[in-house]
Amino acid sequence: MAGTETHRFKQWQLSTTLGIDGLNLVENASIPQFGDEEVLVEMHAASLNFLDLFVAKGGQPGMLEQQPNPGLVTGCDGSGIIKAVGTAVKNFAPGDRVVTHLIGRIPGDAKIDFNSLRSSLGMGTNGTLTQYGTFHHSNLVHAPRSLSFEQAATLPCSGLTAYNALLGLGGRQIQKDQWVLVQGTGGVSVAALQIAVAVGAHVVATTSSAKKVVKLEELGVKHVLNYRDTPEWGVPARAFTPGKVGFDHVVDIGGDATLRESVKAVKTDGVVSTIGLLGGPSDQQVPMMAVFHNACIVRGLVAGTRQQMRDFVAFVDEKRMKPALDDMVFGIEDARKAYWRQERQQHFSKVVIKLHS
User: Fold this and answer.
1) Boundaries of each Enoyl reductase (ER) domain copy (predicted)?
2) Which end of the chain is less packed: N or C, by CB atoms within 10 Å?
3) Dist CA 352 CA 349 (whole Å)
4) Model confidence pLDDT, tens digit, residues 253-280
5) What distance separates the 2 farthest-apart alpha carbons in the chain?
């Protein structure tokens, strides 16, 4: 791309101050020189995750704590068009539409664990909240042909996590007419319900918002349970399944605060995928005898491999799945407002930021 060294654009960076208010909009960023294995992408959309809030606040005591990293471009999910490639890049070309993958410079089938997030986009490597970004080619995969930039930008973190939860465990992939339980209306949960519906499974959801019930039902949810009204929802949710035997898959996003109920809801030999900490700290303990009683699998996972991301892209195109977006879409100048909406859990599914008009 001729003249990239003088091209000016906008991006959001971390500053010396932790927190959402510490995010810094740079309005005259310049494109750096990129190496032989790197790719220059004109970014068109980004979406937010709990991970982005986690990074902005400097982590959490005892878990991925980090010092301020001023100048690092924030954001881990995004989509755009390749503008230029390094001389050693063989799998991409200018004009290709791409989406990001959290972790680069590792084999395509390498599993991601929590500590490896230290090198993820927006945490250890420049991220996606930028109008132009330079990425190692292994941080990218080709985007679905059937999606807009805004829809595609929802896939890399929460979408991939949901895909891994339901289709990533060999021999335990979700099947038609099985039963799935999802919690809440955030990015992972809504992606999981859309994946399950696309396969032909039946979905039950929990929520605390009466306003979101209609949206869940429009996406194909069979039953909705209000977890504020029914704090011990595991057994009542189980009652929705045929014969009250429980769920084949439970996607648990609350961690310590919800895992006890998730284990109550899962069927014998079913799978509980625990993928989040949104419930915060809790004095609730999961009795191991409950896991033993159900003879179930409790599986922790973080996002997914790059090969799973490619498989997910193919799945989205094959099933013509259209990821649900939040009602509010933000421009790049208003990214801080998008973060606040995410933190206050005012959103439905995914908060998206358009990076180009």
Assistant:
1) 19-353
2) C
3) 10
4) 988 889 999 999 999 999 999 997 665 5
5) 66
DSSP H or E segment with residue 272: strand 266-274
Q: Which of 114, 81, 116 is nearest to 100 (CA)?
A: 81
Q: Pull the structure tokens for residue 200.
A: 């032909």
Give the helix/strand (H/E) hosting 215. Answer: helix 213-218
What sign does the dihedral 296-297-298-304 (CA atoms) show?
negative
Read off the tokens for 79: 């989509």
Reduced to 3 states (helix: H, G, I; strand: E, B; else coil), residue 293 is helix
Q: Which two tokens stand for residue 124?
A: 């250890």
Cβ-based neighbour number of residue 63 at 10 Å:
10
Q: Which amino acid is at 81?
A: I
Average pLDDT of every residue of the chain: 92
**Residue 248 CB partners (closer than 8 Å, separation 6+):** 174, 175, 178, 179, 180, 201, 267, 270, 271
